[in-house]
Amino acid sequence: NAGVTQTPKFRVLKTGQSMTLLCAQDMNHEYMYWYRQDPGMGLRLIHYSVGEGTTAKGEVPDGYNVSRLKKQNFLLGLESAAPSQTSVYFCASSPVQGTSSPLHFGNGTRLTVT
Amino acid sequence: QQQVKQSPQSLIVQKGGISIINCAYENTAFDYFPWYQQFPGKGPALLIAIRPDVSEKKEGRFTISFNKSAKQFSLHIMDSQPGDSATYFCAVLVLTGGGNKLTFGTGTQLKVEL
Lengths: 114, 114
Hints:
The structure holds two protein chains of two kinds.
Chain A: E1 4-7, E2 10-13, E3 19-25, E4 31-38, E5 42-49, E6 56-57, E7 65-67, E8 73-78, E9 87-94, E10 104-105, E11 109-113
Parallel strand pairs in A: 2-11
Antiparallel strand pairs in A: 1-3, 3-8, 4-5, 4-9, 5-6, 7-8, 9-10, 9-11
Chain B: E1 4-7, E2 10-14, E3 19-25, E4 33-38, E5 45-50, E6 56-59, E7 62-67, E8 72-77, E9 86-93, E10 102-104, E11 108-113
Parallel strand pairs in B: 2-11
Antiparallel strand pairs in B: 1-3, 3-8, 4-5, 4-9, 6-7, 7-8, 9-10, 9-11
């Protein structure tokens, strides 16, 4: 049982380049999320999805786009990478809404923008 | 705006000692107060959680104490072990009808020394 799988694990981009981070979950969860983790700032929500074909903005959405074409996949795109987007990105999923539905996280993608 | 303030930023405890991490929140409308544990190179994983109608929850060596009037909650790790060395995040959840969106604290790096 893989849980939440993120690819790639590491990536280095030059300023202005684009890339897509892929998240796949095999738990049949409705909800999926993208967070970024920066030192001293905890995890901040970028975008999230409450179901196939839906997306919504989180706390720090600028510079990112997302798509949820299939229930099991949630893609995070950077159209024109900036050094401020150097971070560790975590995808998470959760079952239906409720206080007993914890988020299940992947192991992250470490992105460096030079 | 920072809705959750976590302290300390780092903590060193001797093996067998008690580790205490504190969080304070501002909004009174939160529905769920989880703690996540993160090991290097891994994503955060749910450790223990409490609902606002309970003042304390204990699971093994881990206890959450919740003070609704003071808008504070804390994690106590009894008999701390080197294997507990990790980063701990408190979080708060509001059930808005749009997914389980957690707001995280800034994290505490715990090191348990022999």
